[in-house]
Amino acid sequence: MSAPDLEVLHVDMDCFFAAVEVLDDPSLSGRPVVVGGTGPRGVVASCSYEARATGVRSAMPMAQALRRCPNAVVIGGRHARYAEMSELLHGVFREFTPVIEPISLDEAFLDVSGSHRLFGTSEEIGHRVRRRVTEVLGLTCSVGVARTKLIAKLASREAKPRATRKGTVPGPGVVVVLPEEELAFLHPRPVRDLWGVGPKTAERLARYGVQTIGDLAVLSADSLERVAGRAVGRQLHALSHGEDARSVQTSVALKSIGHEETFPTDRHDHAELHPELVRLSDSVGRRLRSAGMTGRTVNLKLRFADFSTIVRSHSLAGPLLSSAEITRIASALLEGLDVGPGVRLLGVSVSSLEPLESARGRQLSLIDLDHPATAGPEGPGGPDGRQRRRPDEPARAEVEAAVDAIRQRYGSGAVGPATTVEPGSRLRVKDLGDRQWG
Ligand SMILES: [Mg+2]
Asked: Which CATH superfamily is domain 187-240 in?
């Protein structure tokens, strides 16, 4: 069952900075952890539920937080580490949809209207996102699902755990607000929950007896404009009736999907690089399919020991159909390069992206029209000869779709291309979250 009215997910990590600190130092588990400025004007950036139970809140002056919670473990914060985790988080989002509006390091809106065929209903996608976040980051998040951004954001707050003196009470994790439930959900809340209502507007509204969004909703648009000003008044009137026309805005259009890996030691021959290339290509193919996208150009990036970097590309006339095809083209690109100087980083990406659905429509007529190698951005160097699509390509595409389904169910270690199996070792599959940092 798809629900065309519920396309917005708001995903928000639970006390993100504090949770990262506890993850990295398990001895902090169960203690009131407060991350924020430690100077005289310091402010709380994030705090664990144990700290919240004593009344500590984000944005509270640190001095006040310490009065409320004298035994708090205060941590100055490690921004680079939070940024790393944020990158993993956004990688998880990209597994589910290319339409992502990042709000902060640990929070984003996702438009999942193109994701139902692969991942189910919006509610199911909400649960899947939560599971993947826990798998990849080892942390928890909360998800709100609704027709509009405002309601989705408020719903994710409802999904969160609650801090009590007796301990943390788990939240539902995912909260769905159906269109017919919106007003009942919205109206008991304080007006401050609406975008555009700061302390000043709230104070002015309170003088008119307006405390809740429901109080606001009974006022006419005209009287609201008189109280809050023309633009804000009009917006508040709309929001209080559940109307929120803003769509999920991706800040940067998705131009390519790729993976790269920095090796612990430089690689000097093709035989060493090939298994890595297969793993990267397989992972890129999987991400393309899970995003419902395909592309026409395979890019291979190499960074050498002296940090010089080259990119080689090859474009097809039609859409790429499988990971095997990405691997084959990337391998041909690699073959033509001298890796003797030592490779420290290898990357594979696919660009010239388009939604799979629209590509499929044209696929049949394009299947035999692949054209010869084109030069990459840094000069000629495509694979030798013509790259023609193999006749078994559509069959491969079906096999890979089946493999995706198995991984979805049993985890990404369950199956993978034979080249990623190392003798005597567990199957290694290049996964989101496997990225090496330096
Ligand atoms: Mg958060």
From this structure: 5' to 3' exonuclease, C-terminal subdomain (1.10.150.20)
CATH class of segment(s) 256-420: alpha beta
For residue 107, how far is its CA from the centre of ligand 1 (angstroms)? 6
Residue 203: active-site member: no
On the question of a common fold for 187-240 and 256-420, the answer reads no
pLDDT digit string (tens) for the chain, length 438 residues: 444 578 999 999 999 999 999 999 999 999 999 999 887 778 899 999 999 999 999 889 999 999 999 999 999 988 889 989 998 999 999 999 988 988 888 999 999 998 999 999 999 999 999 999 999 999 999 999 999 999 999 999 999 999 888 888 999 999 999 999 999 999 999 999 988 788 888 888 899 899 999 999 999 989 888 888 888 888 889 999 988 877 787 754 557 888 888 888 889 999 999 999 999 999 898 888 877 778 888 999 998 888 788 888 888 877 887 888 899 999 999 988 899 889 988 999 998 887 776 666 554 333 323 333 333 333 333 343 344 455 566 566 666 666 666 665 555 555 555 544 444 444 443 433 332 221
Q: Which residue among the candidates 50, 101, 107, 182 is catalytic per the annotation?
A: 107
Dist. CA 176 → ligand 1 center (Å): 18
Architecture per CATH, 1-177: 2-Layer Sandwich (3.30)
The residue with tokens 């989002």 is 93
Expressed in angstroms and rounded, the spacing between residue 17 Cα and the centre of ligand 1 is 9
Using an 8 Å Cβ cutoff, are 106 and 45 in contact? no
State in Å: Cα 15 to ligand 1 middle.
Answer: 5
Cα-to-centroid distance, 2 and ligand 1 (Å): 28
Neighbours of ion ligand 1 (CB under 5 A): 12-13, 16, 106
Ligand 1 centroid to Cα of residue 52, in Å, is 14
Domain locations along the chain: 1-177, 187-240, 256-420
pTM: 0.58
